[in-house]
Design a protein that fits this description.
elongated; single chain; 70% helix; mainly alpha
Length: 412
């Protein structure tokens, strides 16, 4: 096995920052009580590391070095603050902690869970929750977050500033919610993580790939911090099983490849094995939730040797169960597609027809794409053609548009 070339100082610093950013920043925020001050201090510490580490080499505990330096940089910023007099008690506390060498030698306390719950506080809108989570827990740049949302960097920067100001002004606590409010807050956190994953998984460009990586990292962090929450394990399993098929979803020209045509030998078997094991462990607890059901569906696809051998009856049954928990039109579309394979296309059309008048479905592209496919397999070329035309007009990108056009053209 060939030896990997040694890391350059810049690469080593980048790796440390990437791996430790969330843990260090969360601990700083907990001690400073201010996200912006903590972030500024950590950025100053990273800049200092870029100057010092190439000359001195990496310290024994790089994260502790960054933590200590960030605290000192925060103190420097407070000393320059016009409100310094009002913050003397805070400064004294920081100086005491920074001068305590034993504190820096200890493992940095893991406050990421508190940070995640703060970022996903219900007083913040979901887009802001996602952006703040990516910035604080993942260390994503404002430019990258803006690109993921197709926003201007300046617009996203303002969104992040307003969020930090709202947390500070409203006195939103940096803590894990009480038992009575934990369940709904965990649900909100999982929704944010899954939204980050889907933001990357659906588009597949380079920046979006990093979003799926960050979502998986957040999922692993949540599972480590909340090992007894079944839906946390369910979400991580779902993301692993989805991501296992990522490389097979496009050909060398970038065109989309549907699941039935994918080369299953290219699927990541290690991720499938990990996701399947995680799912089996959490299902055994008996507290079944939506993420676990979706992971079970994805696991059936991942475990099937071929498209024709897919257990559509079980997938349809799982979607029916999911619909009982989440009676949304989106779930019903997926259920109808499964029914079209497990039973008949006419049964699926009966499920889809009444959705035609559902709010916003005239502009919901997956609905029209699903209708087009089922109409085509039912032999109704006219309705399939009309549905493909509508789906194409609503396509989110050229790859998706070209894929639908090929399907439409194949009708003739």
């Amino acid at each position: 096995m060939p030896m990997l070339p040694p890391q350059t100082p810049a690469q080593a610093i980048e790796q440390v920052v990437r791996e430790e950013w969330g843990r260090i920043l969360a601990a700083l925020v907990k001690s400073l009580g201010d996200i912006q001050l903590a972030e500024d201090g950590l950025q100053d510490a990273v800049a200092r590391a870029m100057e010092v580490w190439p000359e001195t080499g990496l310290p024994d505990v790089p994260a502790a070095w960054l933590m200590t330096t960030a605290r000192r940089k925060a103190i420097d910023r407070l000393r320059r603050d016009a409100r310094f007099a009002a913050r003397i008690p805070e400064l004294s506390h920081l100086i005491d902690r920074t001068q305590d060498d034993e504190v820096t030698k200890e493992m940095i306390p893991d406050k990421r869970l508190e940070m995640i719950f703060t970022c996903c506080h219900p007083s913040l809108e979901q887009k802001t929750q996602v952006a703040l989570t990516l910035r604080t827990l993942c260390g994503s740049s404002t430019n990258d977050i803006a690109a993921a949302f197709l926003d201007k960097p300046a617009t996203m920067a303002q969104r992040l500033v307003r969020a930090k100001q709202k947390i500070a002004g409203a006195g939103i606590p940096y803590r894990i919610p009480d038992t009575s409010e934990l369940a709904p807050r965990v649900t909100a956190v999982l929704a944010v993580v899954y939204l980050i994953f889907n933001q990357g998984y659906s588009t597949l460009h380079k920046r979006s790939r990093s979003l799926t990586d960050e979502a998986l990292r957040l999922g692993r962090t949540l599972h480590y911090l909340l090992p007894n929450e079944p839906e946390v394990a369910g979400l991580l399993a779902l993301m692993l099983l989805h991501d296992a098929r990522r490389i097979a979803r496009r050909n060398t020209q970038g065109a989309m490849i549907p699941l039935e045509e994918q080369n299953r030998n290219r699927w990541d078997r290690a991720k499938i094995k990990e996701g399947d094991a995680l799912l089996r462990q959490t299902l055994a607890r008996g507290a079944i939730g939506p993420y676990q059901i979706q992971a079970a569906i994805s696991g059936l696809h991942a475990g099937s040797p071929s498209w024709t051998e897919t257990d559509w009856a079980q997938i349809a049954a799982l979607y029916a169960l999911l619909f009982q928990m989440q009676p949304t039109p989106v779930v019903q579309i997926n259920h109808a597609v499964a029914v079209s394979y497990a039973q008949s296309t006419s049964d699926a059309i009966a499920l889809l027809d009444h959705l035609n008048k559902a709010p916003n479905f005239a502009h919901y592209q997956p609905y029209h794409a699903a209708c087009a496919d089922i109409f085509a397999r039912d032999g109704d070329v006219a309705r399939a053609t009309r549905s493909y035309a509508r789906a194409i007009s609503l396509a989110s990108g050229p790859a998706e548009r070209q894929f639908l056009e090929r399907k439409r053209d194949a009708l003739s």
